[in-house]
Write a structure and sequence with these properties.
With 97 residues, this protein is of the alpha+beta class. The chain has one domain (2-96): Arc Repressor Mutant, subunit A (Orthogonal Bundle). The chain has helices at 2-13, 18-29, 54-62, 83-96, and strands at 38-41, 44-47, 50-52, 66-69, 77-81. A five-stranded antiparallel beta sheet has the order 3-2-1-5-4. α1 (2-13) crosses α4 (83-96).
């Protein structure tokens, strides 16, 4: 399974836009605090205090780079970086060097 995820991550790394890279990096940097998640409600998305375009969120979901955090069903939708998202960053960093 891990090998297939790594292959997918390599494909995704070639598809991710500059803004999506920035969002993934920010989520990864702040993964252990509240700024490490995207809050989405009624067409508005925030990563920490920064507003991001819903299309960026939906693109990262389609690429499986982020996953929904279902810890509190009453709160707005929350998304965190997935294992594939981490692999995309790893592959991207290696590819840039």
């Amino acid at each position: 399974m891990r090998l297939n995820q790594r292959r997918w991550a390599k494909r995704v790394a070639g598809l991710v836009t500059k803004r999506q890279w920035t969002v993934l990096r920010q989520i990864a940097e702040h993964e252990n605090d509240d700024d490490g998640e995207i809050a989405y409600e009624r067409g508005t998305a925030y990563l920490g205090d920064t507003r991001i375009a819903p299309r960026t969120v939906f693109a990262l979901i389609r690429l499986m780079a982020i996953r929904e955090d279902m810890s509190d069903p009453r709160s707005p939708e929350r998304y965190r970086i997935s294992e594939i998202g981490h692999l995309v960053l790893e592959v991207g960093v290696k590819g840039e060097a």
